[in-house]
Amino acid sequence: MRIDGRKKDELRPIEAKVGVLKNANGSAMFRMGNTIAVAGVFGPREVHPKHKEEAERAILRTEYRMSAFSTTSRSRPGPSRRSKEISMVIREALVPVLFLEEFPKTAIDVHIEVLQADASTRCAALNAAALALADAGVQMRDLVASCSAGKTNGEIVLDIAGKEDTDGELDLPVAYYPHKKMITLLQMDGIATKEEMKKIIALAKKGCEEIYEIQKKVLKEKYKEGDKDEQ
Amino acid sequence: MIETDKELIKNIVMKGKRLDKRAFDEYRKIAIESGVISSAEGSARVRIGDTEVVAGVKMDIGEPYPDSKDAGVLTVNAEFLPLASEEFESGPPREDSIELARVVDRAIRESKCIDFKKLCIEEGKKVWMVFVDISVIDHDGNLIDAAGLASVQALASARMPKLIKNKDSYEVDYENRSKEKLPMSGIPVSTTFVKIGGQIMADPLLSEELAMDARLTVGTFDSNGKIRFCSMQKGGNGGFTEDEIAAILDMAEEKGEELRKLIKKG
Amino acid sequence: MGDVMEEESEIIEEKTETIEKEEKIRKVVIPGDMLGTGRAGHGTYEENGTVYSKVVGLMEKRDELIFVIPLCGIYNPKRGDGVIGRIDEISFSKWIVDINSPYQAVLPLSEAVDEFVDLTKTDLTRFFSYNDMVFAEISSVTKTKSVQLSMKDRKCRKLRGGRLIKVTPAKVPRIIGRGGSMVEMVKELTGTQIVVGQNGLVWVKGDNEDIAAEAVLEIEQKSHIHGLTDQIKNMLTEKMQKGDINEN
Q1: Are A175 and A208 in contact (CB under 8 A)?
Q2: Which CATH architecture has domain A14-222?
Q3: Cβ within 8 Å, pair C213-B3
Q4: Domain boundaries, chain C
Q5: pLDDT tens digits, A181-220
Q6: A43, C32: Cβ pair inside 8 Å?
Q7: Which long-range contacts (CB under 8 A, 24 or more apart) does A54-58 make?
Q8: What is the pLDDT of residues A13-64, one digit of tens each?
Q9: Do domains C2-70 and C82-159 have the same CATH topology?
Q10: Structural domain includes residue B233
Q11: CA B75 to CA B172: how far, in whole Å?
Q12: Is A69's CB within 8 Å of B40's CB?
């Protein structure tokens, strides 16, 4: 048993919703325990400034931000080195599933806001972003699911959060492209043996598979509504 | 970019109607939830139709301003999140996000609904700093009223963090929030009206704001059972006649009361 | 590839016609869903002999061809589509047209005007000027998305006056209705002219253009509701009887 009563291989409660914003072309909210992320996609649209466009593919731009009130002590609004790096790894985790060649010379903008932060914010951000991209009608090979696993009090556990995170020994977030069984985001901080590492990666992958099922379910639910009513 | 015709909105208004079939003095459906952000001392999400705003209150210890050594400090900041509209981009704050924060700030400050003297910890040295951060999540018009409601609800539901006094210094314990509320009395709210084709209407949609001639925001609060005005802001490239302003003040009084009833104290 | 596209657009047309009548449940698919074996059409991709969906949409299968009709997304120009555009730029022998997509379209003089035009003596604004609205057909789209328009078809024309409404491109089939039934009904009941562009722009003109515009927005919002045609019919009949537009 863990501090919050979960089993070692148990995710925090998840809540997900597609189509939460009116103005964005696609949007989604993803909540993992006390971490909440909202993503909005604009595009494909014209690229400004023009010199950034690519002749044969769309460019993907991602922006990860945190609300000032999302953390225990207020975080200053505006980009930081941390948020820039996270924006980048999120982008690189999403690119493999996108058919960017379908919309050459355009930009697809993914804006993600973390409203509440309690560990794995980049994972919640990615999960919301993948759903928002599909909701925007962007051509994709698959969705991308993300979660983290780690080590706390010498135990290997899934989806580290709260006190486990602040006192944790190791955190390893991954993003997973299920169709290809490919890991598209992988970071780690902490110390572990090779055996432990393998176990942690396998556990995170298992968590992603669970999240993937939830993503598919909520995405279909949003669009099924219309279908049902047509009967 | 090609958009729906602005004239269409004006024409519909000229016929005594609005795009979403509301009466001119009618607000859209308003939903207020408090305590939506557990990392904040106080928070609220407000939806007015498809407009959505989240406000969070964070508190910290800081130094007072030299000209008010015995008073706490209020800072209101607004972020128009890029995900809320195609028009919002990251980068330096837009002038309308600064205006939004300042109008909300003015209504709170001028109504004196918070007793800043009670937020003094040690005169001239340490006071409570209260940060109200507003995130605009989705924009379908009337951001000021939504942000005003969210800020006031976040303040009303806030619980002060525990203050730990060491020998010569203070520390804030965010893990253990006290049961203590902010010293607050009265509820200031902003009510916004636009003029389109000579008609005055409350709670504008984004499409109405794009077609408007001018906008007027009026802040009111309750003072011992009496309604008082505490702030105003005209916006847009047009103006109002005295009669129009008088009519708006009447409506602001009435609509302000309606909005105030939606705020849960504590 | 060209053949597949054409075959599909025919099927899509037929299918949108049957959207209302045929009340079978069509399968909602999402990116990565396995669709079976066959020829991979629009909205799908093939990998190791299996066809998968690459968009959120409704799956269709005709003989060997598998394709997905998207339920969301921006407008992606396709040859043969009738679109509404706005003249944004005029150059020596062509117009640049905004067609509500990430790609601007080009309307060459030769595709717009039948008569001989002496370019040294003629100001092109004589035909189309800045901000003029046109209904045109997409005559070609290259791989790198150079889009060309033509106005040779009889239905193509300049749209003078009237009002423009922006809708979700994926909802256009619903606004048109089975064999054009929905838009024809709105035209008839309101006595307006209506032109629907596949690119999510609708143009209305007439004394009752506001009522017609309201109906279009209503159809867009309630596109998933069964019996929508009757509902819109009742709404319009009621409004027209009240003489809603001229009084009030």
Answers
A1: yes
A2: 2-Layer Sandwich (3.30)
A3: no
A4: 2-70, 82-159, 163-242
A5: 999 999 999 999 999 999 999 999 999 999 999 999 999 9
A6: no
A7: A54/A104, A54/A105, A55/A104, A55/A105, A55/C144, A56/A101, A56/A104, A56/C144, A57/A100, A57/A101, A57/A103, A57/A104, A58/A98, A58/A100, A58/A101, A58/A102, A58/A103, A58/A104, A58/A105, A58/A106, A58/A107, A58/A108
A8: 999 999 999 999 999 999 999 999 999 999 999 998 889 999 999 999 999 9
A9: yes
A10: yes
A11: 18
A12: yes
C142 touches chain B (CB under 8 A): no
Q: What is the CA radius of gyration of chain A?
A: 18
Cα nearest neighbour of C20 on chain A: A230
**3 state DSSP class of C2:** helix
d(CA A31, CA A128): 9
Q: Using alpha carbons only, what angle is made at residue B85 by residues B219 and C145, rounded to the nearest 5 degrees?
A: 160
Copy the structure tokens of residue B121.
């910890």
Q: Chain A residue with minimal CA distance to B135?
A: A67
Residue in C closest to B11 by C-alpha: C210
**Distance between CA atoms of residues A25 and C109, nearest Å:** 34
Check B15 against C163: CB less than 8 A apart.
Answer: no
Can you give the pTM of this predicted structure? 0.90
The enclosing domain of B212 has a CATH number of: 3.30.230.70
Q: How high is the ipTM of this complex?
A: 0.92
Which pair of structure tokens corresponds to residue B189?
């709210």
Q: Which residues contact A144 (CB under 8 A, 6 or more apart)?
A: A93, A94, A97, A126, A127, A129, A130, A175, A176, A177, A184
Three-class SS state of A144: coil
Domain count, chain B: 1
Number of continuous H segments (helices) and E segments (strands) in chain A: 4, 10
β-pairing, A106-116 with A59-66? parallel
**Does the domain formed by C163-242 have CATH 3.30.390.10?**
no
Residue A77 with chain B: CB contacts under 8 Å: 77, 79, 133
Fold (CATH) for C82-159: OB fold (Dihydrolipoamide Acetyltransferase, E2P) (2.40.50)
Are the beta carbons of B2 and C163 separated by less than 8 Å? no
